[in-house]
Amino acid sequence: MKPTLIAAAEVDRLETWQKYQSHMCGGCNSTCCTLPTEVKIKDLIRMGVVDEFEVGEPPKNIAKRLQKDGIIQRFNQKSGIFTLAQMSNDDCLYLDRKSRMCTIYDKRPDTCRNHPRIGPRPGYCAYIPKPAARR
Q1: Can you give the residue range of the structural domain that contains 20?
Q2: In a domain, 3, yes or no
Q3: Dist CA 116 CA 50 (whole Å)
């Protein structure tokens, strides 16, 4: 079977995204992990950055602490949605720079668990192939 070549998408141009196929993840450079990640309080509890006893506190107080700790970038008080912090290169805080794998995969937020079924272009992926191995 002849392999098909898939062009790299441009993250900011949704029309360049590829129709998602399960085999893409193994050869991708974790492009989805460079998109802003919205999380809810239950995700933060699963991730271990918020204790269950804190749920009774006002969310804006939790957000203030998490911003100070560098875990979230912002909090939308109206929707109750937090946005995880990103590194200077736009990588998710929890993405290993060398392996390009999630360091909290088993505890990852629902947004990540449901990608690409949800997101800016459901059913599509901002696929960028991993760089070829140097010889």
Answers
A1: 14-125
A2: no
A3: 26
